[in-house]
Amino acid sequence: VDSAKRPPLMLAAMSDADNSVDVMRSLIAAKAHVDFKHPNREEWPTALFYAAANGSKDKVKALIAAKATVNEPETSIQESALHCAARYGNAIAAKVLINAKANINHEAGFQTPLAYAAMKGRVEVIRVLVEANASVDQCMPTPLMRAAIAGHHNAIRALLEAMLKQYGRGI
Length: 171
Description:
Distance between the termini: 51 Å
């Protein structure tokens, strides 16, 4: 536990150290609580959230294999680990979470993971989410609107292609 009272598994998930996946596996083998949430710090998410932010597919896979809750709403606005992967542009982590049955259309603060990816211009994540049949117009403003507001031309293009595929039409 560090000075902020974060457990070792959470710290290993946050770490960029080369051996952090091995450290996580050792902690999991020693029965670390994979879904630990600090009782007095509601805004602190679980280790899976941090692993998704880091984009480490091996960390995400290790936590999922240890039965981490994939669809656990993590933050005060109910973001999931998939929202986090989308925000930080971690397409590989997003794909691993989706394969583990992450809810691709979960809304957090009126935003889906696709809306996060569009707002940040994360084209690879957009493609992963659309391939998994994420709704392109579930929330308002829509992901397309968010990409347009932020000026992400490639995200706009990817979303228009997705709309064409899902609905047989553009906007």
